[in-house]
Amino acid sequence: MVLPSTRFGRPLTLIERALLIALTALAADLTHRFIEKPIARTNPSQKKILQLSIFGTAGCALLAGAILLSSSNIISLSNGRSVSIAAVMEKPKVYLDDCHVNNGETLSGECTYGDKGSQRTIVLYGDSHAAQWFPALEKISKDNGLKLVSLTKSACPAPEVKKVEIGAYKNADCFAWRKNAIKRIAEINPDAVLLSGFQHFDFPKSYSSREVWWAQGQQIAFNHLNGLAKRLIYITDTPHPIRDIPNCLASGAGEKCDGSEKSAAKVTGAFTVLNPTSWLCGNNCPAIVDGVVAYRDASHISVAMSEALAPKLEDFLIAQGVI
């Protein structure tokens, strides 16, 4: 199922997976009846068996290669430029210097950027959907003499929600990290905290709806942060792609790569709200925005997109008196 998913640039649907399983079963049955049984009846030599094995393996390899080669590692943009998938998939600096905390860890490092000697400080707080705004905020901080402190952790959104535990993720680690991050924010007393989170996680069935679950987490976050900073700015979640954008574009699917789903922008708690949806979408949400590939995967905006949106974010911060 990996090869078709790579070819289409998106996860396979349940129907497509079922169809592939059925085709695989059919191929196995036909192979057994028309290849394995006849070979068994003829009692071929070891040399013949080896030759057939080599031909079969080579055929599979050629098929896999043809599928992979049909997808380019270069994405062509409408402005005549091109960009490699590797460049689009680059992650923000906080992933490279270990400031984006991983599963099992509960404490962020110093993680200070921008003008480190400045008396004006802003804090970025939340999960990877907060960290996706780091490139924009680092540029803004450098340009405006702000100190930027980044406090982000994988799969731990700023809204204090309890999630369905999957794999290495543990709710206890998330809540411990949040407690430590909020303590750090209290010590800093920043000019602003910008917080965000991915709102499409699986939620416990004890909640009547995703909206109730998320709103409760937002309110708890506000209660814990209220009074710790001059401004609390909640960045609502970015539109959610329905496929892996770089691979989709590289496969030549074009406009089929558009159509990311807009995230609900309702916020509970007396936050100042920034909704970036209009920066990324018009009537629909294109995969390429103003000549920039919007997403680095099937979830996060790309580093280039974050940097391209820095002027809009800067204007918002100026309007709010942060700059």
From TrEMBL:
UniProt keyword annotations, A-Z: Membrane, Transmembrane, Transmembrane helix
Residues passing through the membrane, by range: 49-69
InterPro entries referenced in this protein's UniProt entry, alphabetically: SGNH
The protein, known as: Unannotated protein
The SGNH domain, residue ranges: 98-314
Keyword hit for Transmembrane: yes
